[in-house]
Amino acid sequence: MLGIIGAGNISEAIIAGILKSKTLDCKNIVVSNYNQSKAEKLSLKYGVTAADNIEVIKKNSIILLAVKPYALINVLELYQNELADKVIVSVASGISINDMENVNKRLKIIRTMPNTPVQICKGVLAYVYGANIVENDKNIFKTIFSKLGMFIEIDESKIDAVSSLTGCSPAFIYQIIEAMSDAGVKMGLQRELAISLSAMAVQGSGGMVYNTEMHPAVLKDKVTSPAGSTIEGLAELESKGVRGAVISALYKAYEKTLLFSKK
């Protein structure tokens, strides 16, 4: 049912998430890659089928194009006739639905920007439907992808912002967790324990924001006592400009994404 062209990190994350969610069996996923050994590695690891591009397209009704942005249009042009009756899901940044539909007006395009935590069904998958997508196409897409985490339809004008916020931030969070674990080690904790504690603290804090729907500032105040250790640490973060650094880092990532869109 699901064909995947491109066997990189995001493809692997999506495969792992789909199998974890039990939405599809591994025998219903076919993968190709220009370097076929990468597809074969995914086949060995997850039990999916490795094939060439033509076989991927012919055997499946929905095709995930997980190639680099510079290669996406070339793939669409090369296989436009074979893809004409398929649902095409693109994860390439900077390539608009209009860019893709200009290759062939009959193409049925869904543009989406998943982040790597879809691997454990805790990701974000924002998506936009092209003009040729009908209700049955939407149902197929939702059936396969909706269990990968937060599944949200957005306006295409916002997809670069969403991509930067959710796609880049996992790397930033990993760095924060690493720094927290460094602090734990400095306090005398074993590295493995420090990493586990830091990761759980971040996971729990994110869950509190998401599940309580309370503003982060309100939740912050609930754990901040007058003249206590938490406010002492918060003051240090402010003096080091951490808040501004986070804003700046995400906006720099957004600006870089916009450059891809203009190429």
UniProtKB/TrEMBL annotation:
Keywords: Amino-acid biosynthesis, Cytoplasm, NADP, Oxidoreductase, Proline biosynthesis. Its main location: cytoplasm. NADP(+) binds at residues 66-69. It catalyses: L-proline + NAD(+) = (S)-1-pyrroline-5-carboxylate + NADH + 2 H(+); L-proline + NADP(+) = (S)-1-pyrroline-5-carboxylate + NADPH + 2 H(+). Its EC number is 1.5.1.2. Belongs to the pyrroline-5-carboxylate reductase family. This is Pyrroline-5-carboxylate reductase. It comes from Mucispirillum schaedleri ASF457. The lineage of its organism: Bacteria, Pseudomonadati, Deferribacterota, Deferribacteres, Deferribacterales. The gene is proC.
